[in-house]
Design a protein that fits this description.
The protein is elongated, with a radius of gyration of 13 Å. About 85% of the residues lie in helices and about 0% in strands. Helix 1 packs antiparallel against helix 2. It has about 55 residues and is mainly α. It is built from 2 helices and no strands.
Length: about 55
């Protein structure tokens, strides 16, 4: 995998997670909790993807 493929994979992963975050019904504590934890979730997935790509 070259740099552009890794970058595209990271961007698509973040966009998919953002879309899934907004798929939660509007209002309520569940949506608020998801929005607060979104940056942490993206960070964990980014580390996982980078480790997987590097080890592969």
């Amino acid at each position: 995998m070259n740099f552009m493929t890794k970058l595209a994979l990271g961007i698509l992963t973040a966009l998919a997670m953002l879309a899934l975050t907004f798929a939660i019904p509007r209002g309520g504590p569940m949506r608020d909790a998801q929005l607060v934890q979104f940056p942490l979730t993206v960070g964990v997935w980014a580390i996982f993807v980078l480790l997987f790509v590097k080890l592969k």
